[in-house]
Amino acid sequence: MSEQRPNTTDVKKNEKTKKWLWWGLAALLVLGFVFLLVLSYRQMTVSNYNTAVVKFWEICCQAYIGASGILFLYFQIREMARNTKKMTRNTKAVHEWNKRHRTLEAISRLDFYEDFKAVKKYCTGNGGTQNNASLEKLPKKIDASLSEHVDKIINFFEITATGIKHGVYDENMFYDSMQGVYIKYYDCFCDYMAEEREGRNNSRTWIDFERLAKKWKEKNREEAEKIGDVLPKDSIDFEDS
Known about the structure:
- The chain is mostly helical.
- It folds into two domains: about 10-90; about 110-225, no CATH class.
- The chain has six helices and no strands.
- Helix 3 (about 115-125) packs across helix 4.
- The radius of gyration is 35 Å and the shape is rod-shaped.
- About 15% of the residues are buried.
């Protein structure tokens, strides 16, 4: 979601107003100080000057200076708060940009073409030559050579799902580009993953991948219901062209 930028004219107007406020406050402080000096001088030089009047104006002047100081402090705190908010927004924007950059790198650096090809060949029975072919569920028990390919793919899905959970990667970008792949291969691997969890006696094995795939599957279904369409085909095909 793009950040809404403020109107340039309004920003310049606010800066100009703030500048005049600072100059006005400085001028008032100087005038108050000068007025206090004049009253003190007259008290010392004019013998018949009414002491009560001088004291009254001194108190007024001191109150004025105190109020000016409070006003100055208020503007300082307000300016600090604005700068803090601005820094927070900038930091958040940089973080979001870095997160999207990491996401693009993770997607562009995929190097599992042979692994996907081996799995697709096994699960379609046609050598993996048919684009966007439906995959049959992987059996619970498979040979070691295929298991190596499968584990490599699932581990990649698990690492990216964990990164998404902790804010390392941008979920929306991953969803837009890879949700079809996640869903299809989770449906293919779910029985194998359950068997591996039982064999390893660890119910958390590949749990982030499973949770994310189920979440995206439900989100995909809700989107499909809204547009009256079926589940979309894979956004990325991992076969050689």
